[in-house]
Amino acid sequence: MNRRKDGRWQEAVTLDNGTRKYFYGKTKAEVLRKIAEFSETKERGELFGPIADKWWNAHEPTIAYNTTKGYRPALQRAIDAFGNVPIKKIVPHDIALEIARFSTDKADKTVRTQLLVYNLIFTYAVQKGYIDFNPAREVEVPKKLKKTKRTSPSSADIKRVKESYNCTFGMFAYFALYTGLRKGELLALDWKDIDMKKREISVTKSVYHVGNQAAVKKPKTATSIACVPIPDALYSKLKPGKGLVFPNYKGEYMSGTQFNKAWQRYCNETGVTATAHQFRHAYATMLFENNIPPEEAQALLRHAQVQTTMDVYTDLREEKLKKIHSKVYSIDIE
Question: Which DSSP category does 190 fall into?
Answer without folding.
Answer: B
